[in-house]
Amino acid sequence: MADNRKKNGATPRADREPTSSTAKTQLQTQIARQKKVGITETALRDAHQSIMATRLRTEDMIPVAEMMDEVGYHSLEVWGGATFDAAMRFLDEDPWDRLRVLRKKFKKTRLQMLLRGQNLLGYRHYADDVVVEFVKRAVDNGIDIIRCFDALNDLRNLETAAEQVKKEGAHLQLAISYTTSPFHTTKAFEDLAFSMKGMGADSICIKDMAGLLGPAEAYPLVKGIKERTGLPVQVHSHYTTGLAAMSYFEACRAGADVVDCAISPLSMGTSQPATEALVAALTGTPYDTGIDLSRIVPVAEHFKEVRENYSKDVVNLQGIDINILLYQIPGGMYSNLVSQLREQNSLDKLEAVLKEVPRVREEMGFPPLVTPSSQIVGTQATLNVLVGERWKVIPKEVKNYFLGFYGRPPAPVDEAIRRKAIGDEKAIDGRPGEHLPDELPLAQMAVATWALQPEDYLSYVLFPAVAKDFLPRKFARATYRDVGFGEAVDGVAYPL
Ligand code: CO
Questions:
Q1: 318: CA distance to ligand 1 center in Å?
Q2: pLDDT for position 124
Q3: Both 184 and 147 in a single domain?
Q4: Which residues fall within 8 angstroms of residue 255, CB to CB, at 6 or more apart?
Q5: The pTM is what?
Q6: Range of 361's domain?
Q7: What percent of the chain has pLDDT over 70?
């Protein structure tokens, strides 16, 4: 492992807390023993992804890094999710450079990332060689904690990534995609968490991307998972419905070890509950965060200014999104449905589509409504209504879902609908990732001309179209040579 790190030219280890297996065990014991509730600050990843379209630049993170490093957060979520794509696509920034810069600045605080299992940070399943290499490079460049999840909670989609996180000696957090359905009982989530423990999880995250988790559910869920697994439990939610802060408080009462919060200027709305409010609410209780509010003030002041500078990117959700409470669908999905219908001049059908979504979801085996299943279910529901006959038109993504390419649905699917979608074709029954041939050799050929670091191959596999624009620009800047696009070999396509 040490060899590997050297070879890859990583940040000197002296600069940061090592993620050796001893340190990792210490970290686990520390989380398990501490009475205090830890805070993961999401300002540098989920908060700006949720509230300002992932547009925050590294240069606006650097001035506040030292102050943030002094606060005493459990960890900082700084990478993964949409940040990777957005950095190259919109900001002309190398996401790997950002990680290295942040690693240098944060000398005391653990850095955390979000990884969508076999999807990594992209929109399809990648081959195992890509997943392995990606995890290696992420840890190598400075990530301490990797939170892995799968949209369908199909643990097979987490296997390769999880195994590699363990091999790298980083902290493996396996996350449950939280949703509600007759099949998603507390008991079912406890079972899932127990299986995650079997996969080597160092902690469990309850990941509630839609803000559906209410305080009444949070308490038994956290308590149940902790009792069943004995592992530290972290709760991640979004403020979209207005429930999250209440749910966090109940989660803490039930023994949650860490909760995800965002510094106030980037908090609430579609983002996380405000760090300052949680710190204040828990002060003097048995769940005290140990964080001194006065240390967060300068951090908040910085981000207040940042928010103003980025005002054109800021999503301004006033108050809460009652549609999620009414229809149990995530805010992003709701706005997608509205814009799809508006394009078709059929906004009057919104009510019908909103009623169709839960029906389609049930027929498809109650997938959690998160990317990509939210788009798949949403598109089918819209088609069912607009065509005027249910399941008459079925897009390729829906067929692929029934064929098992995304993984196993959480509950049995409707047999008649499945037949309509894929006829007698048999769904794959293995792990979706095992059907994919290695992808790195082709990528290495494709970007050999502009590669300045081995990480560039990964950037290309994940986002070929974006990287084909970005990498030559970066190459030209670094070498003062302009190598044209004509030499690109576009061997990588999106099958899903
Ligand atoms: Co989130």
A1: 19
A2: 87
A3: yes
A4: 222, 223, 226, 233
A5: 0.88
A6: 322-433
A7: 90
